Amino acid sequence: MEKMSRVTTALSSNTISGRTMFCHLDAPANAISVCRDATQVVVAGRNIFKIYGLEEEQFVEKLNLRVGRKPSLNFSCADVMWHQMEENLLATAATNGAVVTWNLGKPSRNKQDQLFTEHKRTVNKVCFHPTEVYMLLSGSQDGFMKCFDLRKKESVSTFSGQSESVRDVQFSMKDYFTFAASFENGNVQLWDIRRPDRYERMFTAHTGPVFCCDWHPDDRGWLATGGRDKMVKVWDMTTNRAKEIYCVQTIASVARVKWRPERKFHLATCSMMVDHNIYVWDIRRPFIPFATFEEHKDVTTGIVWRHQHDPHFLLSGSKDSTLYQHMFKDATRPVDKANPEGLCFGLLGDLAFAAKESLISSDANRKPYPGGDRRYPIFFFKKPDPTEQFAHVSSALTVFETDLDSNRMDWFVKTAQLYLLSGKPFAELCDHNAKVAQELKRPQVSTTWTMLRIMFSDPANLTTPGPNHNLSKLGTLPLMNSFSMKEMGSGMGTESRLERSKGDSRQDNIHLEPGNSHISNNNEENEETEGSDGQAEYMFGDAELDDDDLYSVEHDNQTEEQEYALPQEAFQLRHEIMDNPSAPEHLQQDKADSPHVSGNEAEVTCLTPIESFSLISISQPLYSPHLPASFFCPIVREMLSHYAEQGDVQMAVSVLIVLGERIRKEIDDLTQEHWYMSYIDLLQRFELWNVSNEVIKLSTCSAITCLNQTSTTLHINCSNCKRPMSNKGWICDRCHQCASVCAVCHHVVKGLFVWCQGCSHGGHLEHMMNWLKSSAHCPAGCGHLCEYT
Fold first, then answer.
1. What are the start-end ranges of the H helices in 577-723?
2. 259-289 in b/e burial notation, b at 16+ Cβ within 10 A?
3. pLDDT tens across 498-542, in order?
4. pLDDT digits (tens, 9 = 90+) for 171-228
5. CA-CA-CA-CA torsion sign (173, 174, 179, 185)
6. What DSSP assignment string belongs to 498-550?
7. For strand 342-345 and strand 351-356, is the pairing parallel, antiparallel, or unpaired?
């Protein structure tokens, strides 16, 4: 105790001093630890094990612990810890499963003291008891934790986590008998060293491995954990159930977490991969780091505060083979570069806008708070050290609400639920989706689906529905234009012309009957519209230019219209076509002005189907009527981009899935991935989980298809012996009992199985739901109070 009091006195007189400095190491470091008087640091790794002195201006190498001609794997360290009570005692966790202690007081070159080889796999963590000199705890990849008494040659207790590998173990700073252990399956367990048979408490802390944990040095019940899910969580362990009280979202998996001394709400973290920086967080403001250290060029592997009562010095080791001492006053402050303005749309179209209060201070409706702005804690006004506080940037939030009737998102939900994306032929999918859009009063989307069906359907797979579809095969019908009509001889009679048309150009006996002529721009599109519900059948006359004028007669200019003078002989059989729809008005006017047609004839004359078809073809180029599907790909690509830019990623993704390989190669993978992620995010915000999963399954982007494959492994323990189950059946290999027995009906559960994470008992989903409606106690009779949520 005399030495400890001396250290405290030294701290009060500011003997711990220094600057931001670093030194190069011989090899990458895996872990570092500092001695209790903050004058030396030990660095351990696969190929390094050295002690450095912390002097005023630099690191000085004091001792190399890797000695001998042939260093064994005992020197290959995954973790190292310097005892905080005994200044000459170190412990390392070796990659070969050994736990080694080192006594720096030995006079020989080899400082190795004791060697424990009880673990079967790599030891991930070693931890000394904070007040008990001879107690050492280890956690291994084999799933076991062992407690060693350094006065004995073997472990005194073995703790089985009944789970996967142990990633971290930490003794409680305030509770003598308690330690916490974190596991790769996301669980955290609390143990009493006096009871090695069963943990005292277990809870799921993260979705994925929990890589680290750390007890708060001052608050007895706070435990911080970090995992692969990129989160740091702070748990209150003083309640009956572990309660998450703070959560910090980082940008990469969390490898190390250490509470900052003398600062209750500050902790430091570093990442296992991708991110090389060290962050200090104020857990009360988890959205932006309080301070950042950016010196390392590779992944940071170990962090430790230089002294347990000094918050101003942080030591770190890295895979870039450097050892750093960071001065806190030299840290980067991200909040200084943060943008105090923000803009976000709500789920139902509401708009939230945040800006500096100074920018909107002219708002007369805002009433100032008496005695200062009390939206912030009162200690902000006590003039604390400015380096220990966030910048006082105050933003005002304004919310603009939209009219619910005009901005409802019901169409999005109904469209997502009713759309068909697979399971039927392409034409049927387009027709169904067009009908859905039409019923939801979205005519443009409906028309788009219809056009896609016309463009990409294979006409060879369609059959003629009936005799009324008399233009089902126009492959041999010549495309007539104004020039061919001019060249017709005026002496050619109507009967001879019709006979020639039947003989030369209608080998498949097409009958053009009045009232049944379906007019189309080209042969392929006409064939595609057959068999539909009439949305793509276009006629002139009473039904002129339906469906938003998709097809129209294009006239270049007024002067060219005068050239379309029809021969008088073409209209002599008007008594046979009186029932036909009347011609367009401007065509009737042209004929009234024509010198070949008398006034009386212009009043009753109308076009026969063959002339109508030739008129539509006037503005079209003379090419083959069969267009390949690839001809439309650029247009469809632009259309999808248009929908996406307008915010309708639902349409873009749905068309992308339905068209499949027809259009996928036309759009780059990053754009597709962006559309998919945006649509999936919207679906999940509306809790449309099944639709979201279907979209993920139908996607061909590798970054999307893996979304529903993460965290799908379920590790099961036997409900009787608590041992891990194999995947071979319902019988436990160890106790030979049937593990998945329903606690209500006592039969084997072969379908959906629900269980309580507290007592591990469960059964059929329906049986458990019915049981818990009338009773809160476990149906197995264990006395546990189960909850079904």
1. 585-593, 599-604, 609-616, 633-645, 649-659, 661-664, 669-685, 689-698, 702-705
2. bbbbeeebbbbbbbeebbbbbbbbbeebeeb
3. 344 444 443 444 343 444 434 334 444 333 333 334 344 444 444
4. 998 888 999 999 998 899 999 999 998 899 999 999 889 999 999 988 778 999 999 9
5. negative
6. HHHHHHHH-TT-----TT-PPP-SSHHHHHHHTTS-STT--BSSTTBTHHHH-
7. antiparallel
- pTM score above 0.85: no
Within the chain, what is the greatest distance between any pair of CA atoms?
130
Q: Output phi, psi for 90, to 5 deg.
A: -125, 155
* Contact yes or no for 32/44 (Cβ under 8 A): yes
For the domain with range 713-788, which CATH number is right: 3.30.40, 3.40.630, 3.40.1350, 3.20.20? 3.30.40
What's the length of the chain?
789
How many other C-beta atoms lie within 10 A of the C-beta of residue 743? 23
Burial-class residue 627 by CB neighbours within 10 Å (0-12, 13-18, 19+): middle
- What is d(CA 125, CA 80) in angstroms, rounded to the nearest whole number? 8
- Give Cα 236 distance to the centre of its chain: 29
φ/ψ of 29, rounded to 5, equals: -95, 145
Residue 257 CA: distances (Å) to CA of 213, 274, 304: 7, 17, 9
- The three state secondary structure string of 253-272 is CEEEEEECCCCCCEEEEEEC
Backbone angles phi, psi at 744, to 5 degrees: -95, -55
Percentage of residues of the chain with pLDDT beyond 70: 70
Inter-CA distances, 503 with 475, 497, 518, 615, Å: 15, 10, 21, 22
Tell me the CA end-to-end span of the chain in Å, nearest whole number. 52
**27-160 under CATH 2.40.50.100, yes or no:** no
How many whole angstroms separate alpha carbon 289 and alpha carbon 267?
10
Burial (0-12, 13-18, 19+ Cβ within 10 Å), 345:
exposed
DSSP states of 726-755 as a string? PSS-SB-TTT--BSSB-TTT-SB--S-EEE
405: three-class secondary structure by DSSP? coil
* Distance in angstroms (rounded) separating the CA atoms of residues 185 and 208: 6
Structure confidence by residue, pLDDT tens digits, 554-572: 444 443 444 445 555 554 5
Domain positions in the chain: 27-160, 270-335, 339-360+394-404, 407-456+628-712, 713-788
State the angle between helix axes of 426-439 and 649-659 in degrees (0 to 180), rounded to the nearest 10: 160
Token look-up 């700073």 returns: 173
> What CA–CA distance (Å, rounded) separates 392 from 378?
13
Distance CA 754, CA 746 (A): 14
C-beta atoms surrounding 517 within 10 Å: 20
CB atoms within 10 A of CB 518: 19
DSSP assignment of 2-52 equals HHHHHHHHHHHTT-----SEEEE-SS--SEEEE-TTSSEEEEE-SS-EEEE
* C-alpha Rg value of the chain to the nearest Å: 40
Token pair of 771, please? 């049981």
Sign of CA dihedral 563, 567, 572, 576: negative
Burial of residue 70 (CB within 10 Å: 0-12, 13-18, 19+) is exposed
Of 208, 214, 323, 204, residue with least CA distance to 268: 214
Rounded-to-integer distance, Cα 782 and Cα 777, Å: 8
